[in-house]
């Protein structure tokens, strides 16, 4: 029961964070779309966890905190917000990099997951 409430609380916080982030069209009016391609790795013998592509549209929330796929991870995730802000500021189209999760497992910070990302930003004409 407690777990279920935790889950609801987490979802509620996430919803608030998304609303706070605002829409992509408001935050970055020059951007017509962003494609995030991520490969998730975790610390194990078979490190490749999954591949994921996220399409962000002007009508989407400008929220780029990608969740850590390790269920027991607390306060983790991969925050691409700053990289995306920088990319758009420099008017770059493609940026690649990697990031490690800073979350905790059993209250201990440990190396447990990372992603390799490729961010594609599409710019359009400002329609307003
Ligand atoms: Zn994590």
Word description of this protein:
With 128 residues, the chain is α+β, with helices and mostly antiparallel strands. It has one domain. It has three helices and nine strands. The strands form three sheets. Strands 2-1-9-6 form a four-stranded antiparallel beta sheet, with helices on one face. A three-stranded antiparallel beta sheet has the order 4-7-8, with no helix packed on it. Strands 3-5 form a two-stranded antiparallel ribbon. The chain binds zinc ion (ZN). The site of zinc ion has 8 residues, from loops. Zinc ion binds next to loops.
Briefly characterize the structure.
By secondary structure, the chain is an alpha+beta fold.
Instruction: List unreliable stretches of 5+ residues.
Output: none
Note the run of SSEs as H and E: HHEEEEEHEEEE
Number of helices: 3
Strand % is 35-45%
How many DSSP E strands?
Answer: 9
Characterize the biggest β-sheet.
Answer: 4 strands, antiparallel
What is the number of domains?
1
Rough outline? globular
- Radius of gyration of CA atoms, rounded to a whole number: 16 Å
* Class by alpha and beta content: alpha+beta
Overall helicity: 25-40%
Head-to-tail CA distance between termini: 49 Å
Strand order, sheet with most strands: 2-1-9-6
Mean pLDDT figure: 92
Heteromolecules bound: zinc ion
């Amino acid at each position: 029961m407690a777990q279920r409430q935790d889950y609801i609380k987490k979802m509620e916080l996430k919803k608030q964070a998304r609303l706070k982030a605002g829409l992509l069209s408001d935050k970055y009016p020059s951007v017509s779309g962003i494609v995030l391609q991520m490969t998730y790795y975790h610390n194990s013998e078979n490190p490749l966890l999954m591949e994921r592509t996220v399409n962000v549209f002007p009508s989407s929330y400008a929220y780029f905190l990608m969740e850590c796929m390790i269920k027991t991870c607390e306060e983790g995730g991969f925050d691409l917000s700053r990289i995306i802000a920088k990319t758009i500021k420099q008017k770059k189209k493609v940026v690649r990099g990697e990031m490690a999760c800073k979350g905790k497992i059993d209250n201990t910070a440990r190396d447990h997951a990372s992603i390799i990302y490729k961010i594609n930003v599409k710019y359009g004409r400002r329609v307003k």
